[in-house]
Amino acid sequence: MDERRVVVVGAGPAGAALAYLLARRGIGITLLERHTDFAREFRGEALMPSGVDAFVQMGLGAQFDGLPQAQVRRLEVYRGARCLLRLSIRDFGIESPRIVSQPAMLEMLVTEAGRFPTFQLERGTTVRDLVREGGRVVGVRTESSAGSHEVHGDLVVGADGRASVLRVRAGLHEERTPQHFDVVWCKVPLPAFAREGTARAYLGRGHAALAFPAYGGRLQVGWIIEKGSFGELRRRGVDGWLAEMEAHVSPDFQAHLEAHRAEVTQPFLLDVVCDRLVRWTAPGLLLLGDAAHPMSPVGGQGINIALRDALVAANHLCPVLLGRGGAAEIDAAARAVQEERLPEVAAIQQAQQGPPAVLFGRAWWNRLLVDALLPVLVRTGVARRAFAALFRRFAAGVAPVRLEA
Fold first, then answer.
1. Mean pLDDT of all residues in the chain?
2. CB of 58 closer than 8 Å to CB of 111
3. Cα separation, 37 vs 112, whole angstroms
């Protein structure tokens, strides 16, 4: 009996997780990854409890726990030098978010997938185009150090990120939600306030700063700015944008940044995008993760949503592929993945728009809310309840996702 083969493009969280899940069921997998290794800087490394649960369901809970990581146990919300709110994640009745080394996480996933004989990983392989026969996607065209060739499969899964080549080549169209902010990321040595798992958010009108513990004794810092304003910051250099951020944080954090300025990693810009494809599929093709729906960084949702996409995709694809279903059945299973995942993706993306709208909105009431009403909302407990409700949604997802494959 011929082996069914799935070509997965992109060894990010969605692609690597799905490749592992299909390979362990004996389905042939060719996983194509553009880079030769995962040793590079990633913009998002937060994993909410729903993402951790995905690893547990995959049977990789112990392997995940062994990865370099830090936990966020508390959050302090500041307005300039004044702490308005202190929150303990434990009080919400949920597990703490994890900040995980994404290179180590991805390497773990492909290593575990490699234990199965039907799994094949091709690193350093760039996908240039789709291969079609009779209007159906049947493979991809690739380039590597070995030259150009075609890789064929019964299904192609595009998990090649928010700059997806496959979404462009397939002619799939997105619904875009305009974003009003970008994020400048860097890392610095871990300060005293973060050593026990405390994260801080510094809120202002037109800007904000996030600081949370990362693995390896580092602090991840995000300076949130109005979209399109990074050019001016870049012209001022690292010292210039650090000085601007320092003017909006508490004295202890300001002193820490000053003391460790020489150890600040090279900052990089996240051009924030939030959209989702109208259709995640074409005949013979399924897109997942950021390739189908790039998420805003608000709430640290990118990896979580990608992993949950992979679980649902495995649920729908495994029975068809193992049951020798034909092209029509495979395409129907791919469409079912979008049908199941779309409500959660849409709801989370909508929830992600709230905080930036308050900080970066230009309506008259934005300044009133940030400058005058926020302290009142904190004193009356409204802010705490609102944050708890939003955090629970980000932490647990909109609906349970159970791995059945």
1. 91
2. no
3. 16
In this prediction, residue 304 carries a pLDDT of 96
Residue for token pair 């760039």: 126
Residue type for 228, please? G
What is the chain's alpha carbon radius of gyration, rounded to the nearest angstrom? 22
Structural domains of the chain, count: 2
Give the integer Cα–Cα distance in Å for 279 and 339: 10
Give 3-state DSSP helix, strand, coil % of the chain, rounded to 5: 40, 25, 30
Whether residue 375 lies inside any domain: the answer is: no
What's the residue count for the chain? Answer: 405
Higher pLDDT, residue 342 or 397: 342
Structure confidence by residue, pLDDT tens digits, 100-113: 999 999 999 999 99
Query: Are residues 147 and 188 located together in one domain of the fold?
Result: no
The encoded tokens of residue 279 equal: 């259709």
In a domain, 162, yes or no: yes
Last residue of a domain, one of 324, 354, 384: 354
In this predicted model, what pLDDT tens digit does every residue of 385-403 receive, in sequence order? Answer: 888 888 888 999 998 999 9
DSSP secondary structure code for residue 263 in this structure:
G
User: 228: buried, middle or exposed (CB in 10 Å: 19+, 13-18, 0-12)?
Assistant: exposed
Same-domain status, 312 and 346: yes
DSSP 326-369: -HHHHHHHHHHHHHHHHHHHHHHHHHHTHHHHHHH--SHHHHHI
Q: Are residues 143 and 61 in the same domain?
A: yes
Q: In this predicted structure, what is the pLDDT of residue 232? A: 78
The percent of residues above 70 in pLDDT, for the chain, comes to 95
The single-letter DSSP state of residue 35 is: S
Residue 346 in domain:
yes
